[in-house]
Amino acid sequence: MARRSLGASLLSLLAVGNSLFFQTSVAASWPYGPLVTEGRDIKNTEGEDVVYAGVNWPGAADVMIPEGLQYQSVEYIVSQIKSLGMNSIRLTYAIEMIDQIYENDGEDVPIQTAFIEALGETNGTKVYNQVLAANPSFGANITRLEVFDAVAAECAAQEILINLDNHMSLGAWCCNTEDGNSWFGDTYFSVANWTRGLGYMAEHGKSWPALVSMSLRNELREPDNNATLAAASYNWQDWYKYIKQGAGAVNAANSDVLILLSGLSFDTFVTPVVRGTALTPSTSTFQLSDFAGYEDKLVLELHTYASTTNCTSLEISLYNSGFQAMHPEDPQTVNVFPIALTEFGFIQDATQWKDNVYATCVASYLAQEKASWMQWVIAGSYYIRTGVQDSEETWGLLTHDWSTWRSPEYVEGGLVPLINKTASP
Ligand SMILES: *[C@@H]1O[C@H](CO)[C@@H](O)[C@H](O)[C@H]1NC(C)=O
Ligand SMILES: *[C@@H]1O[C@H](CO)[C@@H](O)[C@H](O)[C@H]1NC(C)=O
Ligand SMILES: *[C@@H]1O[C@H](CO)[C@@H](O)[C@H](O)[C@H]1NC(C)=O
Ligand SMILES: *[C@@H]1O[C@H](CO)[C@@H](O)[C@H](O)[C@H]1NC(C)=O
Ligand SMILES: *[C@@H]1O[C@H](CO)[C@@H](O)[C@H](O)[C@H]1NC(C)=O
Ligand SMILES: *[C@@H]1O[C@H](CO)[C@@H](O)[C@H](O)[C@H]1NC(C)=O
């Protein structure tokens, strides 16, 4: 902290005479935001590289609040994440939460109601009471958004950055191509509700010091439930049209946050954006000037879940899918961006992390690229997943009751070393 004290005292001095100056100046303390991009890097206001090394904390399923709170406190869960040396989380939410706030004249729903809606009267009441018992700071009438606020406040207290991710329109487990949440205009995926929700959360998140970036939409995918929509719209041209609307909604509400753009086919590729090739069926291409005034706020995100026995071929595939964006020296790279691998994961047992080629290959590749990443998933269980209550998550870093590491072997042998090789500052 010492090296920052001069800047900080200068700011306080100026603040005495002009409080406006203080409000509009950059933060002289953690998280040293707003963050910006510079070529393939994300930078903080100290000029340091910011590389996310973090984990997904889901909050977009039926109850529409962050998971795990019937078992552990917000403080405990954030402490566990922090203890690994991680610097960030990808916190997911559903647009339906904001739709319901609008329907309810601006008032959010108390979590007691949300639990009963999602789990039924008996189990909903029981789990709600468990949440209050595990989190004594929660008042009885706490709302969903206030739970998000509590998570954000604890992340700030423990210096964990937040990438806030719109995971679904409906509050439900994600994803498949027939769930009505696949693509812009799908059954539950209203573009107007989506941009309204993005703007709402961007505005609301101004009160979260830990919030530094927002993902526009998780895993866009072909709407197999609607052949007409798929044929007419599931393409890069419409992707670009809607991504510009989403990015514009976020930036208009909150010009500080970075904006993560995700690709097609479950966010497995963003190649035309990187190579500046036609956004088909149109012949036009990605133009940074379409994001005038916030050209230095865009980051690309990718997901990878694969089964492979050949690391070289997975590396080539990741490169061609988008990591090429971090290689300005490659003549094929037209648009240089930082890449964040915001989902990858595997079963947390004693051996997968070291014996499964996919698991070892992703780890070595991230370290080699010094790219940002967020593993799926911290959750040891979910309140409810596709109808199953208290559902076990074998990919969760934590055990069912979120108390301890599911695979201490991985944490020690794979995860902490990866964090050590990538997390920055
Ligand atoms: C309610 O919770 C119990 C476990 O406490 C579980 O056995 C039961 O299946 C749940 N009810 C529903 C409808 O899922
Ligand atoms: C919760 O709301 C109910 C009904 O509006 C009210 O009677 C009660 O006092 C509130 N409880 C707390 C702790 O604010
Ligand atoms: C398919 O999507 C289009 C465009 O959003 C919509 O107008 C139409 O009603 C949808 N069809 C069905 C069967 O849901
Ligand atoms: C959009 O939000 C409104 C509430 O403002 C809601 O009634 C409507 O169902 C939502 N649309 C979709 C497609 O979910
Ligand atoms: C692995 O993939 C690379 C790249 O596709 C290929 O050149 C190599 O032959 C493969 N190795 C094996 C053992 O199949
Ligand atoms: C992190 O890596 C450095 C070397 O780069 C090593 O000295 C240090 O012990 C490592 N720390 C952990 C926790 O692995």
Summed up:
With 425 residues, this protein is of the alpha/beta class.
Q: How do the helices and strands follow one another from N- to C-terminus?
A: HHEEEHEHHHHEHEHHEHHEHEHHEEEH
Alpha-beta classification: alpha/beta
In which order are the strands of the major sheet placed? 3-4-5-6-7-8-9-10
Q: Treating each run of at least 4 consecutive H or I residues as one helix, how many helices?
A: 16
CATH topology name: TIM Barrel
Q: How does the major sheet shape up? A: 8 strands, parallel, barrel
Distance between the termini: 13 Å
Overall mean confidence score, pLDDT: 94
Query: Which stretches are poorly predicted, pLDDT < 50 over at least 5 residues?
Result: 1-24
GO molecular function: hydrolase activity
Signal peptide: 1-28
Protein name: Glycoside hydrolase family 5 protein
Keywords: Hydrolase, Signal
Protein described:
- The strands form 3 sheets. The protein has an 8-stranded parallel barrel, surrounded by 4 helices. A two-stranded antiparallel ribbon has the order 1-2.
- The protein is of the alpha/beta class.
- The two termini are 13 Å apart.
- 39% of the residues lie in helices and 14% in strands.
- Helix 8 (191-204) packs parallel to helix 10 (236-253) and helix 13 (311-321) crosses helix 15.
- The model is unreliable at 1-24 (pLDDT under 50).
- It has one domain: Glycosidases (TIM Barrel).
- It has helices at residues 5-17, 19-24, 74-83, 95-103, 111-119, 121-134, 144-157, 191-204, 227-233, 236-253, 264-267, 271-275, 311-321, 352-355, 357-369, 408-422, and strands spanning 36-38, 41-43, 53-57, 88-94, 161-168, 211-215, 258-262, 298-303, 339-343, 372-375, 381-385, 388-392.
- It contains 16 helices and 12 strands.
- The chain binds 2-acetamido-2-deoxy-beta-D-glucopyranose (NAG) (6 copies).
- One 2-acetamido-2-deoxy-beta-D-glucopyranose binds next to helix 13.
